[in-house]
Design a protein that fits this description.
The complex is a heterodimer of chains A (about 425) and B (about 200).
Chain A lengths: L1 H11 L3 H10 L2 E3 L8 H20 L9 H10 L4 H29 L7 H23 L4 H15 L5 H9 L6 H33 L26 E3 H26 L32 H9 L8 H15 L1 H4 L12 H21 L3 H9 L5 H28 L17
Antiparallel strand pairs in A: 1-2
Chain B lengths: L7 H28 L5 H6 L3 E4 L8 E6 L2 E7 L2 H10 L31 E5 L10 E3 L14 E3 L6 E2 L20 E5 L2 E4 L8
Antiparallel strand pairs in B: 1-9, 2-3, 3-4, 5-6, 6-7, 8-9
Classes of the chains: A mainly alpha (about 425), B alpha+beta (about 200).
């Protein structure tokens, strides 16, 4: 009976089964994936969570300046299980960035952005960019006071562009201050336009990956290794079918991830004010600015760069250029780092040091963006220091370190300074 | 009947012209969608210039009107308040509004009283620190926050103080003088906020 149904289906859509085989049962992935390879599938899981919970949130949300704040309170208090659905959405947003940052760092560790996977990396960066826009607009929707002023500050970034800036800002906002028009368009972009873009990019990201095949912690190309495995005499010996082997492995990751996520959702949904900010429980007020304006944690490193670059020649646009530049450089990474050896296991000491400095600079910029250095510095250096000066000196050193990573990497690989270790022929764990 | 010889030049010309015409069509069709993001007629109406009669504002009184959702302070300053202004200079961050506050007012209000007519103060009532709305404390008598108070503004949020021209005092968190909007006098007793005087940049 079941077989007859499958045959009936196959006769009418003969293309479906090969697609399933190509991407699942006959997608051969290197068999030495480690912990770092969980985060791609976890990102997909969070995306599904965001779409599902998001659909249910729209059913009770009112995207108007007068109704938005109340409708979110209504979801939290009166809608059956509304609080859970919203907390799943807000926690999912922060965890999305956790897994995506780790996923991207995996790429830096094992050179997954290098030839022939440049397109996989660029598509991934486009996903990251769309995700940032999606997160920012979602953040504005509850129309609390942080939403309002967050929207004001971020749209003001566009206002710094010389000559056309003010008009551009007004065009994005649709009013002279963030208002009903802003909220309406951000809602439209957040729930339909950007999710469509995101889904399309995810499909392209996976299609591009499955075309060239997955990288691995050794950075060796299993396609060039010996042929013949248990399932197919022509396929790489050091690879295993994605399904069932990696689907089962990823399921373990999903289990652990869901335990962590559930713990946050049930016991610390605001995460001490880092996932959901206290000031956003106050209604949007265009006459009162919150005492401390800072973005959500995942934007802080990039926001710190804006703050650290001083105004020059009568315009504040340089900080904005630097911020966008810090992301643009990541796009260009496959052409900045042209070293032949992929994995950090066999790369020169220079790369290891540079990557460490890069990570330190990123976390330091996050601290500054979160305003944590304001309390940290007086504790370390005494309460009589000038915090602003220390903040600026520290922040500027870290900004230089961030950009320095790319400059160093270009010189290091283009001028042939890198002394690499020999790369093995096959993955190190083969039998 | 199929042509034996394909005219490649003709084919390329038709392809290019079709693409160009199609491209122009796409760009034209995009215009309404892009323009739909501009502030709507309703938003523009709310952001339109505000006209206010000054007839009923007595000496020493303040009236607050809304312009572009911002509170606009209109004050009929007394001669005593005006006389006290120059005396505040040493205590102010930028008494002439030419330093850090150079961009805080139109050129025609960049003077000691920060106004077109000395007695009339027209100002955006937003503290330059974090956007609170300062209180008008017009009487010249000792205040808990300043025993030598000569009239001005006191911000309840973080205790910033301004004089009767919205100029910020030293030693408070606010960095700049409060902002003066573009405005002009329609006639002797009517002010319009949002439009520069004729001939002024």
């Amino acid at each position: 009976m079941a077989n007859a149904f499958i045959r009936w289906f196959d006769e009418r859509v003969p293309g479906l089964a090969p697609v399933y085989r190509k991407h699942m049962t006959e997608y051969y992935a290197p068999k030495n994936f480690n912990l770092w390879y969980y985060f791609g599938s976890l990102a997909l899981l969070v995306l599904v969570n965001q779409i599902l919970t998001g659909i249910f949130l729209t059913m009770n949300y009112d995207p108007s300046a007068t109704g938005a704040f109340d409708s979110v309170q209504y979801i939290m208090r009166d809608v059956e299980w509304g609080w859970l659905i919203r907390y799943m959405h807000t926690t999912g947003a922060s965890l999305f960035f956790v897994v995506v940052f780790l996923h991207m760092f995996r790429g830096l560790l094992y050179g997954s952005y290098k030839k022939p996977r440049e397109l996989v990396w660029v598509l991934g960066m486009l996903i990251f960019l769309a995700l940032m826009a999606e997160a920012f607009m979602g953040y504005v929707l509850p129309w609390g006071n942080m939403s309002f002023w967050g929207a004001k500050v971020i749209t003001s970034l566009f206002g710094t562009v010389p000559v056309i800036g003010k008009g551009l800002e007004q065009w994005i906002v649709g009013d002279y201050l963030p208002a009903d028009a802003t909220l309406n368009r951000f809602f439209a972009l957040h729930v339909i336009a950007l999710p469509l873009v995101l889904l399309l990019l995810v499909v392209l990201h996976l299609a591009a990956l499955h075309e060239v095949g997955s990288n691995n912690p050794d950075g060796v190309d299993v396609k060039h290794g010996p042929k013949g495995n248990r399932w197919d005499p022509l396929k790489p010996a050091d690879a295993i079918p994605f399904h069932p082997y990696y689907t089962v492995k990823d399921l373990v990751g999903v289990g652990v991830f869901l335990i962590v996520a559930a713990f946050i959702i049930f016991f610390a949904p605001t995460f001490g004010g880092w996932f959901l900010e206290h000031d956003n429980s106050i209604r949007a007020n265009n006459l009162v600015t919150p005492a401390q304006i800072k973005p959500v944690w995942y934007f802080t490193a990039f926001y710190a760069i804006v703050r650290m670059v001083p105004s020059f020649a009568g315009t504040a646009v340089w900080g904005v250029i630097a911020m966008f530049g810090s992301i643009a450089l990541l796009f260009a990474l496959p052409w900045i780092d042209v070293g032949k050896v992929k994995s950090i296991r066999y790369r020169g000491t220079g790369y290891k040091v540079a990557l460490t400095v890069f990570v330190i600079s990123f976390f330091s910029l996050m601290l500054i963006g979160m305003d944590l250095t304001d309390t940290l510095f007086p504790k370390i250096f005494g309460s009589d220091i000038d915090i602003t000066t220390w903040d600026n000196v520290f922040g500027r050193i870290m900004t230089v370190a961030y950009f320095g990573f790319f400059v160093f990497l270009w010189l290091y690989t283009h001028l042939g300074w890198e002394k690499t270790k020999p790369v093995p022929e096959r993955v190190t764990t083969h039998d | 009947m199929a042509n034996e010889v394909v005219d490649q030049g003709r084919r390329r010309f038709l392809t290019v012209t079709t693409a160009v015409v199609g491209g122009v069509g796409v760009v034209t069709a995009a215009v309404p969608f892009i323009k739909s993001w501009e502030p709507s007629a309703r938003a523009k109406a709310a952001g339109a210039p505000v006209t206010q009669s000054l007839k009923k504002i007595e000496s020493g009184q303040q009236l607050i009107v809304a312009w572009r959702s911002l509170p606009i302070f209109i004050v009929n300053r007394t001669s005593a308040q005006l006389a006290a202004l120059p005396k505040q200079d040493p205590r102010l961050v930028d008494p002439t509004s030419t330093g850090t506050s150079a961009g805080q007012q139109p050129k025609y209000a960049q003077n000691e009283t920060r106004s077109i007519k000395p007695e009339w103060l027209v100002m955006i009532g937003i503290c330059t620190h974090l956007g609170c709305v300062p209180n008008y404390v017009g009487q010249m008598k000792p205040e808990p926050f300043d025993p030598n108070w000569q009239g001005g503004y006191y911000c309840p949020c973080h205790h910033s103080r301004y004089d009767m021209a919205g100029r910020v005092y030293k030693g408070v968190p606010a960095p700049k003088n409060m902002q003066i909007p573009p405005y002009h006098f329609v006639d002797e007793t009517t002010v319009q906020i949002g439009v520069d005087p004729k001939g002024a940049a």
